[in-house]
Design brief:
Length: 279
Amino acid sequence: MTAVPAALDARTVRSADGTTISYHTSGTGPGILLVPGALNDADDYAALAAALAPHFTVHTVNRRGRGGSGPQGPDYGILTECDDLAAVRAATGARYVFGHSYGGLVALEAARRDQGIAKLAVYEPGVSVQGLIPMDWIPQYRRYLAQGRPIDAFATFAIGTGPAAARRNPRWLMSAILRLAFRGEQRAKVVQLLEANLHEHEEIGRLDDSYANYREVSADVLLMAGGKSNLPHVAPAFDRLTDVLPSARVHTFPKLDHVGPHHKGPVEVAEAVTAFLLS
């Protein structure tokens, strides 16, 4: 059963470099920040926010480059993302954070620098170990964007970073599948986010094998994964993270895959996050 989206209150703050960062607020209770993944914005997590709202004041961040937030800017990097979360946290007083995919990487990096984050829940964070989140698709992806061929760029990304079934598809077939699967406003959103996705994955590549830095995270951490994700980086990343994080536990959702938090299982994910945060 999918949660009914709660009423949202749109707000903005200024990050350290002056960039506007927007976020949507709903619910009542202790504050939690939701940090979306690549190719997603705050609207995609409305069902997750609604499922958390009975227990928490939920602040869903529109990371820079999307929604009502400003552009990534020429100096974009993981530090600017951390500054953005710090600005929202300062405005809201939230002490809990949830991050999905690239948003999970951002959340881990933010928690290294901010001991005011008391608990952190991440779903398949974009932590690369020994190059298991590939980057060899980037040159062709960049060429397709420059040629005005966004769906071909999207297909190149899906083949380069997706599960085994996706990696077996030729580019022309994946492009056809994506044209059928993404239409109208949904396709327009993804196309608009493709440039941001490029820079975000460049940061994932730059941070490859830097997981030892997460020894500095003081927050209690819940590591979540979908049993059907079939992404090669997830298990090795969780092995390393459970070794280095001072306080971490793992929860697997047997029936979910990588898009569980915002597509296939927001209520189920919210239940696990709620149990962790209220324990």
